[in-house]
Structures are given as C-alpha cells and as structure tokens.
Amino acid sequence: MSETIQMTGYAKKQAATANQHFFAASVQDWCLSTPERDLREVMKIMDGFGHGYNLYLVPLPHDAAYDINFFQPQVEGAKWLGFFDVKKKGKRK
Asked: Which of 46, 73, 86, 88 is the most exposed place for a label (fewest CB within 10 A)?
C-alpha cells in the first residue's frame, strides 16, 4: 500500500456509499466516515486532534468488523490515500 490515490469529486461521492468508508488514524486518534459523517468532516475531526494522520479507503460498510494493525485497516482491497500533516498555528511576531 505505497501508492497515493488521487480522489476526484466523483470518487469522494462514491466512497460515501454503504459498501465503503474512509478510515483515518494517527498514533493517538482515529475516525471513520459514516452515512452522517463525510470525508470533509472526518478530516476536520482529525485536524482538530492536532496530529498528522493517514487516510484509507476501506471497501466495507462503516459498521463492519475488521482488524487494525499498526494503525492500518487489515482489509483486502483497502487503499492508502496519503498522509495528512496538521498545520500548526504559530504566534506572529
């Protein structure tokens, strides 16, 4: 899972179906998309935690049971979409 997948608007919409979901995880937190929580909301929640995170597209419903190992979903066909670093807010001089 070393390739980065470019998500188009169509792909984002398709990923919100009942048969797949987004899974985001950092070393401290995790979040996934649901019918009520889309990708933008997942990313906003993860950014709010303040840690960089990896994002995956998991080809299972959001409520399916699957293993997580080293912060990665252990699901056949799961795609790593990339690492997202949170921008730190610094003081202006």
From this structure: 88
